[in-house]
Each structure stands twice: as structure tokens, then as C-alpha cells.
Amino acid sequence: MVEEGILAEWRDEQGFGFVEVSGKRYFLHISAVKRLGAGRPRQGDRIVFQPGTDAQGRPRALAATIDRGPAKASPRRIARGASNGSRFDFFDLLMLILLPVAAIVALRTGQPLFAIAYALFSAIAVVLYWHDKHRAVNGGRRVPESTLQIVALLGGWPGAWIAQHLLRHKSRKASFRAVFVASALLNVAGLAWLSGQV
């Protein structure tokens, strides 16, 4: 038997949510969603799934697919899509300003060590973001957010920012992004101070 319901709640960072069918809610994990070529689930999506239960007997959606056919979207969903449609925002504007500033300050030092450090920590950041995204999708142990922020503070913020957009990971959570921007600002301020000491 196959059911069809609406994804009433979706927590993308944790990779799970709840499908509602006639008042009944089914737990849905990202690992149960087949064919993610259409993109990750979004709140308001129509979900076709095989109903089942977990080890405690609670309703769970299995073998789920996202149906984004031509069905008319509700006004609530249209409003939500308008508010989340663009991924470029104030945080990204700050990053675009910081990138050339950091490059100019690093070049003024005349020390290649700074450029090497930025490249190294940026590469580490990309790997960590990829690993965390992979674990989020497959339900494994996540990379602590503090680790991601420390790598950004040490100079990996350019790579982390690129990874956020390429992987669509950690690019919506406002509290995380605020700390991330603060880490990048502190890093550039520290670089500017060091350039005056060299």
C-alpha cells in the first residue's frame, strides 16, 4: 500500500521531518527518500511513500519519493518559496567584501605563508563540510559545529563559504552563519594585525 501526504515539517540540517496524511504524522528520514535528483525535501512537498513503523511501533515513511508535479501550490507554500528562494543574502555580501580585503592584506605582508595557510585550512573546511553533509544524509555521527567554526577562524572561511553553497549545507541556519561571519571577521582582523607586525 502506498500513501501520499504533505511534508508538514522538515529540518534540513538534521535530515528529517514529518509527513502528514489525514491528521496522522509519519517520521521521514532523508535516507528513506529515493532519487534526490529533484533536490532535497522542502516543507510543503507532496511525498509518496510506503507506510511502516520503527522499532518502537511509531509511524514511519519508507521508500519515499518527492512529487513536485504540476499540482497547484497553496498560498502558504508560495509565500514560503518567495522568502527562501534566494540563497544570496547579507551574510554572502559580507563574504564578498571580506575575500578581496583578506587577499589584499595577505599580499601586503609579502609572506607566502599566509596564502598557504588560507589554502590549507580552506581545503580542510571543504572536506569537513562534505563529510558532515554526507553524515547528515546517511544518519552518521556529525562534525561538531564548533569544529567547523574553529577551522573558519583559523583561515578556512573562504573554503567553508564556498562549500556551504556548493553542498547546500549550513547555508540557512542563521545562528550558525552569524558565528561563521564573526569568525571570518576576527580572522581578517588578526591577519591585518599580523601584517603590521611582519
Beta-strand proportion? 15-25%
Measured distance between first and last alpha carbons: 70 Å
State the share of residues found in helices, binned by percent.
Answer: 40-55%
- N to C succession of SSEs: EEEEEHHHHH
Descriptive notes:
By secondary structure, this protein is an alpha+beta fold. The chain has two domains: 3-83, OB fold (Dihydrolipoamide Acetyltransferase, E2P) (Beta Barrel), CATH 2.40.50.140; 86-197, no CATH class. Helix content is 52%, strand content 19%. It contains five helices and five strands, in the order βββββααααα. The chain has helices at 75-84, 90-109, 112-138, 145-166, 174-197; strands at residues 3-11, 16-21, 24-29, 46-53, 59-67. A five-stranded antiparallel β-sheet has the order 3-2-1-4-5, with no helix packed on it. The longest helix has 27 residues, at 112-138. Mean pLDDT is 83; it is low at 71-86. It comes from Chitiniphilus eburneus. Keywords: Membrane, Transmembrane, Transmembrane helix. The chain crosses the membrane at residues 90-107, 113-131, 174-194. This is DUF1294 domain-containing protein.
Lay out the secondary structure:
Elements: E1 3-11, E2 16-21, E3 24-29, E4 46-53, E5 59-67, H1 75-84, H2 90-109, H3 112-138, H4 145-166, H5 174-197
Antiparallel strand pairs: 1-2, 1-4, 2-3, 4-5
Helix pairs in contact: 2-5, 3-4, 4-5
